[in-house]
Design goal:
Keywords: Cobalt, Metal-binding. InterPro entries: Cbl-bd_cap, Cobalamin-bd, Cobalamin-bd_sf, Met_Synthase/Corrinoid, Meth_synthase_dom. The protein is an alpha/beta fold. The chain is about 55% helix and about 10% strand. Helix 5 packs across helix 9. It is globular, with a radius of gyration of 18 Å. The structure holds cobalamin (B12).
């Protein structure tokens, strides 16, 4: 069994070899600890964030941490994602990281989970302006829009996106789900979204419910 404390610590200290070794051990042991390992990696990212705030780490360390986190997701992916994607509703939906935010590791995890759940994900990428999202909703006629954001200021961009959907007369026809580290029930109300989630599994549940009624 892999020690999750050791994994979180190695991630926080950016010890790449140890992180890879521990994650490979999780997979060699059948992947049962994959979700726990994912959570430990995220704890490690919080440690990285604290070091950054304290001035001990720099932007270059954040870049390295991002690469290491992507590598971790790559190793754990097969054990994290269940389902062959064929049983899902095959509904199309839009997913992106909102304007002014360049963080996409969490968004990419959500995308993988949704695809495994049978959804067709139209991924608009990062730093996506409200107008671009509105145009894509019009063009594709999707009924589900998922907004990701990791920076606190992403909340403003999410709110601007919901307002742009309203102005375009589209808000009543599509469900909006927001996710990412700063998101909460309170922010969900501020943004004017239908729901919020941190957990990709909950996201798939919401989307399945909405796909069934749209
Ligand atoms: C890696 C990293 C970066 C990398 C990102 C690389 C990449 N490709 O994404 C780079 C180097 C680009 C970066 C840049 C910056 N970063 Co940065 N970064 C991080 C770090 C260390 C990890 C983020 C991460 O990937 N976490 C792991 C993923 C898996 O977690 P997650 O995104 O939360 O996603 C999960 C859930 O939230 C959820 N989820 C995510 N999206 C969605 C969407 C939906 C719809 C749903 C339902 C769920 C969901 O599912 C995921 C899986 O569980 C964090 C620290 C931290 N504690 O997270 C800081 C952090 C986010 N960064 C921070 C800062 C300040 C910056 C910079 C401003 C630094 C600078 N001075 O330049 C820039 C901003 C650039 C910009 N405009 O966006 C701050 C943000 C502070 C704040 N509150 O706003 C943090 C918190 C660090 C800190 N403590 O100071 N960063």
């Amino acid at each position: 069994m892999v020690s999750m404390e050791a994994l979180a610590e190695a991630m926080g200290e950016l010890e790449e070899d140890t992180v890879v070794e521990l994650l490979e051990q999780v997979m060699e042991e059948g992947g049962k600890q994959a979700q726990e390992a994912m959570d430990a990696c995220q704890k490690g990212m919080d440690i990285v964030g604290s070091y950054f705030e304290e001035g001990e780490y720099f932007v270059s360390d954040l870049i390295f941490a991002g690469d290491l986190m992507s590598q971790a997701v790559g190793i754990l992916k097969d054990a994290l994602i269940s389902g062959d994607g064929k049983e899902g509703p095959q509904t199309s939906l839009i997913l992106c990281t909102v304007q002014n935010d360049l963080h996409d590791i969490g968004k990419n995890i959500v995308r993988s989970m949704l695809e495994a759940g049978g959804f067709h994900v139209i991924d608009l990428g990062i730093d996506v302006a409200p107008g671009t999202i509105v145009d894509k909703v019009k063009e594709t006629d999707v009924k589900i829009v998922l907004l990701s954001g990791v920076l606190t200021l992403a909340i403003n961009s999410m709110k601007a996106t919901v307002e742009a959907l309203k102005e375009a007369g589209l808000r009543d026809y599509c469900h909006v789900l927001i996710g990412g580290a700063p998101v909460s029930a309170e922010y969900c109300e501020v943004v004017g979204a239908d729901a919020w989630a941190h957990n990709p599994q909950t996201t798939v549940q919401y989307c399945k419910e909405w796909a069934a009624v749209s």
